[in-house]
Design a protein that fits this description.
Mean pLDDT: 77
Strand order of the largest sheet: 1-2
Structural class: alpha+beta
Radius of gyration: 19 Å
Order of helices and strands: HEHEHHH
Number of domains: 2
Organism: Exophiala mesophila (Black yeast-like fungus)
Shape: flat
Largest sheet: 2 strands, antiparallel
GO molecular function: oxidoreductase activity
Low-confidence stretches: none
Helix content: 25-40%
Protein name: EthD domain-containing protein
Biased composition (Basic and acidic residues): 105-117
InterPro entries: Dimeric_a/b-barrel (IPR011008), EthD_dom (IPR009799)
Strand content: 5-15%
Distance between the termini: 58 Å
């Protein structure tokens, strides 16, 4: 089993909802039309955990350090220093992540179109 597969298995077991977003050159070009400032990177990773203890267990683990921070090729795919955003998700519309104890937001069936006319 490859190192990448082992890492993914460990990651998916200890993190509840890992996600990666890749920003392609084509999408960056299209985004210029919005006139909004773009972030200065081509991707990011999101890690959803149920509580802070789960994050500390993940971030402080030898698997994370050995398979991410201390790899020789880390500089090829991670800009240093790492930055973090921490928050609580508030789902406004759609389905929440029940595995994390999240609640659902509004669904289309909950809305009465006459209220908005």
């Amino acid at each position: 089993m490859s190192r990448h597969v082992i890492w993914c298995l460990w990651f998916s077991t200890n993190a509840k909802f890992p996600n990666q977003t890749h920003i392609t050159p084509e999408l960056k070009e299209k985004a210029k039309a919005t006139g909004l400032e773009q972030l200065d990177f081509d991707g990011c990773s999101e890690l959803y955990v149920k509580n802070w203890d789960d994050f500390e267990q993940f971030y402080g683990s030898p698997e994370y350090a050995n398979n991410t921070l201390h790899r020789k090729d880390t500089a090829n795919f991670m800009a240093m220093p790492l930055r973090i955003v921490v928050g609580v998700e508030n789902v406004i519309f759609g389905q929440g992540l029940n595995s994390l104890g999240g609640g659902d937001g509004l669904h289309r069936d909950d809305l009465n179109p006459r209220e908005f006319s």
